[in-house]
Amino acid sequence: MIDDSSARSESALDETFERYLQDKGKGRGGDGGNYRRNAVRELERFREWAAGERGDDNWTGIGPDDVDRDPTFAALDEQVFREYARHLAGDRGLKQNTVQTYYAYISAWCGWCVNEGYLEAHYAQRASATAPLPEDDGRKPGDQQAWTPEQRHTLTGYVDEEARTAIEQFTGLPEDVDQLEREQGRYAALRAARDRALICVLAYTAVRVGELLRDPDDPRRRGVRWEEIDLEDGSMHVYRKKQQWDSASLPDPVISPLRNYKRLLDPPTERWPVFPTFDQRTLATLVSEELTDRGLKPAEIDEQRSTYARDLLLAIEEDIQPPSLTTDGARTVLRRITADASIDIDHPKHEYLAPHGGRRGMGEVLVRAFGYTVAARYLDNSEEMVRERYSHIEAGELGDIATEALEEVDGGHVPTDE
């Protein structure tokens, strides 16, 4: 009888990848989620390195030189993971935090392999294995931008003026205007109103963009719908990062833009996405396929589409529900508006006001005004996490206290800028 653990030790590394990713993935079948997308990339990177397909010219992989097969679990030990940590740390194109993040994916897989009987020990977490990794500086890559009050005011002021102008131009059209011109005016007004509502929600609610819009990598995140928004109570039902539905607050600066936008959009049903995509190719395909399913012939579809300035307007009229704007789509919108509003950005990673910057900017406001406990509730985070993320505020306040104490004790003998 063959020992099961011995058989598993001779398994190729990539034989476990799909099962591991299913366990870690989101949604039905474990085929969704950002973690899965990132993990599969790092697992393949590790497999290639282990097989000798990555690294310098002298690196031949972890298996014996005279064996022509993919590396197996029998070849893994803490020295292998130490060498991989050194390989990642030696990549000059990777930041310290990124090296830590990439290694964490492999370490998590290693732990899973121990539980599944492929490995005897969690080699990746041993001190000797992690020693070559650079120290984590405590910052999360790409998550440091925060909209300043001036940036927030400029951005929201710009989209408000753009929406007001577009809506006034549309509603001010004479009754005898050409139908195509009216359609074009309505489309421009809808786009401007949607952008204003989106920017205000990102700027004032501190909701994560992944909770608000569609994430193609996670089927559960299909974008918030009108049925999930209560403009009277000032609340919005969203699928939180903690994998459950919860209510988020809609402060006053958000209510009016949403209400005016909904009145202009006049969605056929409450199940429509609040922020539908305006991508013409996506909508053209959607409309054509739906009308085909309803029994229309190609010539009839072309004729019906030609009567509308944009397929979005046809979708509204025929109740063809479009998909929500994606998280990447929101970044595209913000890039465009940041440039159009001529907002200066001084940030090493982002040349525009990124969506997470709105959340962090609102966090700054709340911590300074009401403290960490209230901010944590609004941000849907633990107070410990909020204190860590906004520790610079407390440090500054403690610095002011220290200055006052020195002035009190030393009689005002404090160095100045003079």
From TrEMBL:
GO biological process terms, semicolon-separated: DNA integration; DNA recombination
Record keywords: DNA integration, DNA recombination, DNA-binding
PROSITE patterns: CB
Region feature Disordered, mapped onto this chain: 130-149
Highest taxon listed in the record's lineage: Archaea
Example of a GO MF term: DNA binding
Domain Core-binding (CB), chain residue ranges per copy: 8-114
Record's keyword annotation contains rRNA-binding: no
Matches recorded under PANTHER family: INTEGRASE_RECOMBINASE PROTEIN MJ0367-RELATED (PTHR30349:SF41), PHAGE INTEGRASE-RELATED (PTHR30349)
Protein name (database record): Phage integrase SAM-like domain-containing protein
Annotated organism of origin: Natrinema soli
